[in-house]
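2024-03-11 09:14:02 INFO worker-7 job=invfold-0412 stage=load source=structure_tokens
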């Protein structure tokens, strides 16, 4: 009801959460920046929001979160559960090559290639029903088709719809892997350099970090401290910020 009655307050509430969401993500992200930050977007508010409502209410704060993570030197793996077809185009607003989009089985992997190909990486393409109920030859044929079409010019990862179903037939999973190795090679190279960067880009500033108990409150409780207060304060706020992120992750 708030979406219709007070949309501006909804947007303000979403924006208010941005620093905490970003800090919580950075707290558990790979410190060497080798792996993308996983951003689970369950249903993407769709079909609960129309494309117009998504554009006006949902996307602005989500975009800000992802830009802050990208600015911190990370790539993003966006888990696009459900059919994100009406909203895929928004990911072209983010820096090129910084997002891997998992395309669920409800979405059209070929349409996703048309809209995101050459700009953001996509993953998926092998239907759950095929992995669970199909035959190895059918899986092989599907992978071959994907490699010749969706994988053309790069930027594609063979996968099920946002993952592999638990009840996939082992022989079908093997067929998917074997077919990918046969048809999905971009190169015969065996050594790939993994980029390691423990430092954020120059000039990047972390969002304001929140704590459960401010240092000033703790200092008053202690009645003052001896020694290097700045050092004690720094360690106190580091531990309190970690605790805040833990609580935020559970209650959010």
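2024-03-11 09:14:09 INFO worker-7 stage=emit residues=252
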């Amino acid at each position: 009801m708030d979406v219709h009655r007070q949309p501006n307050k909804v947007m303000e509430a979403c924006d208010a959460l941005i620093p905490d969401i970003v800090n919580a993500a950075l707290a558990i992200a790979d410190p060497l920046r080798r792996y993308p930050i996983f951003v689970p977007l369950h249903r993407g508010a769709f079909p609960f929001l129309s494309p117009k409502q998504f554009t006006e209410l949902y996307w602005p704060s989500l975009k800000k979160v992802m830009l802050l993570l990208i600015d911190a030197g990370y790539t993003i793996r966006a888990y696009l559960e459900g059919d994100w077809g009406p909203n895929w185009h928004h990911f072209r607003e983010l820096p090129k090559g910084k997002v891997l989009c998992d395309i669920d089985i409800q979405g059209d992997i070929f349409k996703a290639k048309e809209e995101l190909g050459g700009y953001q990486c996509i993953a998926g393409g092998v239907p759950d029903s095929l992995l669970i109920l199909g035959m190895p030859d059918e899986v092989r044929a599907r992978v071959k088709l994907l490699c010749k079409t969706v994988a053309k010019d790069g930027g594609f990862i063979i996968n099920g719809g946002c993952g592999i179903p638990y009840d996939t037939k082992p022989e079908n999973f093997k067929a998917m892997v074997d077919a990918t190795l046969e048809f999905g090679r971009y190169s015969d190279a065996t050594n790939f350099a993994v980029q390691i960067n423990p430092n954020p880009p120059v000039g990047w500033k972390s969002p304001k970090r929140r704590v459960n108990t401010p240092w000033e409150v703790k200092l008053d409780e202690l009645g003052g401290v001896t020694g290097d207060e700045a050092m004690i304060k720094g360690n106190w706020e580091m531990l309190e910020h970690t605790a805040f992120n833990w609580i935020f992750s559970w209650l959010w």
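2024-03-11 09:14:09 INFO worker-7 stage=report msg="Strands lie at 37-41, 76-80, 99-103, 121-126, 156-160."
2024-03-11 09:14:10 INFO worker-7 job finished
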